[in-house]
Amino acid sequence: MPRPSHADERRRQLLPIVASAFAELGYRRTTTAELAKRCKVRENILYRLWRDKKAMFVASIEFVYALSAETWRRLLAEGGDGKPPAERLLQYESEHHGESGLQRLVFAGLSETNDPAIHRALRTMYRRFHRFIGEQITAYRDDRRPPQPDVGLSAWAVIGLGTLTSIVQELNLLKSGERKRFMAEVGHLLIEGRPAA
Amino acid sequence: MPRPSHADERRRQLLPIVASAFAELGYRRTTTAELAKRCKVRENILYRLWRDKKAMFVASIEFVYALSAETWRRLLAEGGDGKPPAERLLQYESEHHGESGLQRLVFAGLSETNDPAIHRALRTMYRRFHRFIGEQITAYRDDRRPPQPDVGLSAWAVIGLGTLTSIVQELNLLKSGERKRFMAEVGHLLIEGRPAA
DNA sequence: GTATATTGTAGGTGTGTACCTACATAACCA
DNA sequence: TGGTTATGTAGGTACACACCTACAATATAC
After folding, report:
1. Which residues bind near strand C, taking a CB cut-off of 7 Å?
2. What's the CA gap between A11 and A62, in Å, rounded?
3. Of A113, A151, B51, B56, which sits 20 to 30 A from A181 (CA to CA)?
């Protein structure tokens, strides 16, 4: 029998490179030639690992989200000297926002394609994202002080907060310190239902 | 003397068509050929009105924002049977969100280009947007009930709310009714600093 | 009417790009 | 060792796209 295929492993090796290219350049400007160059392989090797460019993009979305979620889970698991988990998440994101490139992939997927497969991938990603945030908010909340806004709505709003933060960062609309304050104060308001002290 | 130039008027005629094409297709997929077709002119006529494709895009951003702001101003001016202005704005947007295509232009500008002129145009647009929303929130607030969150932060958060709503709509993540409720409840929380009754 | 500049038409051109074909090489299993 | 198949190399193709050139037509001011 012939050689066994190491395609899965190869995909795992190259996906981070592919994803970061898409996040940096968007969908259209990320040419398959550029991808090949960054991966240090020939184009048609990429085409042996994924059916087409679209499939590379979809895989990138899934990869980047999985990576982010994993990072957050680790952060939350490492035990937080008393601080509430959702607040730690927000603080972490206010310092590392944009690093994963997730938002840039979303913008690219929304504006550069009308592809149903890509939209499906984004939808699935957002649903997972929303559920994850919702779980953190629920875990964080203190039942003793209602009224608090609906968890589902809060979770969407927190995601929107992240999206806007990423735009604000991209366009240099707020300095780093202001951005952190924005994230912390509005985040608190959305989660707790009242302004921070 | 020769014929006078009607270029300004021509630009005003064509800009709505150009802008809606960019909003619908993004930057890259909006080819100059497609623009010409929709405008029912030859390509090089567009190139006589704007230096290049980038200039057409920048003009579109300015046009669409000006149009939105004008719509909101008219809405607020027409006197609102007792309702507070910011709430009417939010309600209006929850019903008409996405119609202007402003958010799609932002996504396109952010993901499909790295052009400084385009980023400058987006930055200016956001600053105006932020100031406008801030003014509405200030006008709306009731001084008798502190504590309320910082107006500047609230205004950014409201913009973020709009952005997320547009993504949610694009991806069909919430039904229309849920989207409206989201906009109303979170908007209230952001502006007033406490959940709606 | 005529000179002059604005409009409109027709057709490139050079480049970029997704994806493919043909073939050489090397790893694996019997 | 030999047969089979994964992996790598080199080059190509068909098309799409931003932008340009050359020229005809037409509207205005005198």
Report:
1. A 1-4, 28-33, 43-44, 47, 52-54; B 2-7, 10, 41-45, 48
2. 13
3. A151
Structure tokens at A50: 């994924």
Average pLDDT of every residue of chain A? 90
3-state secondary structure of A160: helix
The shortest CB-CB distance from A26 to any of B111, B182, B185 is to B111
Which one-letter DSSP state was computed for residue A196?
A: -
Give mean pLDDT, residues B87-106: 90
Place of tokens 């994803």: A19
Question: Which amino acid is residue A13, in one-letter code?
Answer: Q
* Per-residue pLDDT reduced to its tens digit, B158-167: 999 999 999 9
Cβ distance of A185 and B107 shorter than 8 Å = no
Q: Do A165 and B160 touch (CB under 8 A)?
A: yes
- Considering just the CA atoms, what is the radius of gyration of chain B in Å? 19
CA A28 centroid distance within chain: 20
DSSP state at residue B50: S
pLDDT tens per residue across span A53-83: 999 999 999 999 999 999 999 988 887 677 7
Integer Cα distance of A59 and A145 in angstroms:
42
Six token digits for residue B83:
């309702």
Q: Is the pTM of this model over 0.90?
A: yes
Q: Which nucleotide is nearest to A43 (CA to C1')?
A: C19
- B181·A153 Cβ contact <8 A: yes
* Measured distance CA(B112)–CA(A28) in Å, rounded: 7
Show residues of chain B in contact with A110, CB under 8 Å: 104, 107, 167, 170-171
Query: Residue A80: what pLDDT?
Result: 66
Query: Which domains are present in chain B?
Result: 55-192 (1.10.357)
**Structural contact between residues B165 and B97, judged by C-beta atoms closer than 8 angstroms:** yes
